[in-house]
Specification:
heterodimer, A: 45 residues, mainly alpha, 0% strand, rod-shaped, B: 558 residues, Sodium/glucose cotransporter, globular
Chain lengths: 45, 558
């Protein structure tokens, strides 16, 4: 098995566009979690 | 204020000026002065973006709002993360590649000099006035709470800010923003710890939150779809999205922050920093307001939080009677609050607490009505005085100085960015473009520093004027909201379409502002929706004008 070069998956994540899409997705996901936490906080007490 | 607190505030102000002067060594040319030669790291730019958005009113006003009305205000920021992502995809690469100093400069590249000058002019007018309001609002509050002279307070905020912004340019602005933001974070954390440590031993954090929830202070989401309600999930997500797109993408005071980043990627990450941190930080600020609200369940609260008004009203017999009544009601609130925390206490204890709280609130409402009628000021509110009054009367020596310095920091970090942006737009969009096109860099640098000083003096002048004309603040805010959505519409035409013509952008902007003015005068809808109306009106008008131009062009060629 090759270990000295980028694998297919590795090559994809090094593509700037794919990397940025992933980052934006993470930011959206994080904020959805924040919204959920805010809602749970207001319901918890 | 204690001598140590005074020294802390003075040391902070001195350090800010010293640090700004130190930075002036790196700004020997206009590009360095306004754009830091695009050399700043993402985290510094990101903190500067947050510091610019967070004015003293954010710190003082929203804690007061949470005290009074709960945490609903958080919904205002719901559109922000999505706006940041859209901006990362669109304007950040566009502006960086266009290599512009101002957002409006890009409009000349896309349309014509007329559209650039008009948008830049509206920016100068609305930001010039709002900068004065940003100075005046905390100056009035601090002068009342600390007993300082109002004009001296305006100068204490304005002069150091003008000095370091004038001498150090965008580098000084960004690096002082970083320190000021850290000071604000530290101040907030200390206040949370101090308030929690001041709760009675038998009251846990959970008990305190139960009390806050019982009075509807923890409601963070309102799903009702009402256009007249300012803070709902929908107005925050959609109206807030348009407002944040416009503020961060088209307002030079924010655009200039990410233009100083080292690269497109670093500019993007600096915006994403706000996308991740803004809502949690705002949550903590609002939580501080709720904690202050709870703190006054166990400590005697003032009837009115504006100390000058309170002292003046003590001569009034009716007010003194209300004060006595309020003392009794506050004692009932304290007693019933403590009962809620006791083991086995259930719904009955909560119901008793609600009755006691309601009774206390009714007395305070009557007192506020009395103040309004006595002073002849129907708009009187003491919401903005709650947090500063709490700071000066209940925090220990040293922490008071830290928090007053944090309020100064919040004010100065917004003002410095705005002065820097106002100077950039004046020099780059008008002086260098329309007045004197061929001069050497040194000349433009001197003019840039003078422009910064000029706008600083304008801000202080407007601040003094605004303190005498309370309603002016509302006029300024309204003016800004007329402009913001329409400005976004022009940038949508510029970046998002190929068909928009220079004429459609210019007249589209005017149509958009007219549409927002008409909507604000004839309907009661919340101001957050003005941005949606403005953007839609500009794009629609721009489309129709472009279509008409194309039609006229086609018929001519026939």
């Amino acid at each position: 098995m090759r270990t000295d070069g980028p694998t297919r998956t590795g090559a994809q994540t090094h593509d700037p566009r794919t990397r940025w899409r992933l980052i934006y997705l993470l930011v959206v996901g994080f904020n959805l979690l924040v919204f959920l936490s805010l809602w749970l906080f207001s319901q918890a007490f | 204020m204690h001598f140590i607190d005074w020294m802390l505030v003075a040391a902070y102000l001195g350090y800010v000026v010293y640090d700004g002067v130190k930075r002036s060594r790196d700004t020997g040319e206009v590009r360095g002065y306004f754009l830091a030669n695009r050399s700043l790291p993402w985290w510094a730019v990101g903190l500067s973006i947050m510091a610019t958005q967070m004015s003293a009113i954010t710190l003082v006003g929203t804690t007061g709002q949470a005290f009074d009305d709960g945490m609903r205000f958080i919904q205002f920021y719901f559109g922000l993360p999505f706006a940041m992502i859209i901006l990362c995809v669109t304007v950040v690469p566009f502006f960086h590649r266009a290599d512009v100093f101002t957002a409006y400069e890009y409009l000349e590249k896309r349309f014509d000099v007329r559209t650039r000058a008009l948008t830049s002019f509206f920016f100068l007018m609305s930001r010039g006035l709002s900068c004065g309001v940003i100075v005046s609002a905390p100056a009035v509050i601090l002068s009342v709470v600390l007993g300082w002279n109002l004009y001296l307070t305006v100068l204490a905020i304005g002069v150091p800010t003008i000095l370091f912004t004038m001498l150090g340019g965008v580098q000084a602005v960004t690096w002082t923003d970083v320190k000021q933001m850290i000071l604000i974070f530290v101040g907030m954390a200390v206040v949370v710890v101090v308030i929690l440590s001041r709760f009675p031993e038998e009251v846990s954090f959970g008990d305190a939150m139960t009390l806050a929830a019982a009075t509807d202070h923890l409601r963070t989401m309102d799903f009702s779809f009402s256009l007249n309600e300012t803070y709902t999930v929908w107005s925050g997500l959609l109206g807030g999205l348009f407002l944040m797109l416009s503020y961060f993408g088209c307002d030079q005071s924010q655009v200039q922050r990410f233009l100083t980043a080292r690269s497109i990627d670093q500019g993007r990450v600096s915006l994403l920093m706000s996308a991740v941190l803004k809502i949690p930080v705002q949550f903590v600020i609002l939580l501080i307001g709720v904690l202050v609200f709870l703190f006054y369940h166990f400590a005697p609260p003032p009837l009115v939080y504006n100390p000058v008004t309170e002292t003046r009203m003590r001569d009034n017999v009716e007010y003194r009677a209300l004060m006595r009544e309020y003392e009794g009601a506050s004692e009932s609130v304290r007693r019933t609050s403590l009962a809620v925390g006791k083991a086995g206490a259930g719904e009955i204890a909560l119901a008793e607490y609600r009755v006691a709280f309601q009774n206390r609130e009714e007395i305070r409402d009557r007192a506020l009505e009395l103040v309004k009628s006595t002073q002849g000021d129907r708009r009187f509110t003491d919401v903005n005085y709650i947090f500063p009054t709490f700071i000066t009367t209940h925090l220990p020596v040293g922490i008071v100085g830290l928090m007053v310095a944090a309020i100064f920091a919040a004010a100065m970090s917004s003002i410095s960015s705005e002065l820097n942006a106002l100077a950039t737009a004046s020099v780059i969009d008008f002086y260098r473009r329309l007045i004197r096109r061929k001069a050497d860099d040194r000349h433009y640098l001197i003019v840039s520093k003078l422009a910064t000083g000029f706008w600083g003096l304008v801000a202080c002048g407007v601040a003094v004027w605004a303190t005498q004309l309370g309603s002016l603040i509302e006029v300024v805010n309204r003016l800004g909201s007329f402009f913001y959505g329409s400005l976004l519409g022009v940038f949508v035409l510029a970046i998002g379409t190929r068909w928009a013509t220079p004429r459609s952008a210019f007249y589209g902007l005017l149509c958009g502002m007219a549409a927002v003015a008409a909507v604000s005068l004839t309907t009661q809808i919340s101001f957050l929706w003005y941005n949606v109306v403005g953007t839609a009106a500009v794009v629609l008008a721009g489309f129709l004008i472009s279509l008409a131009e194309r039609g006229a062009g086609t018929s001519r060629t026939r």
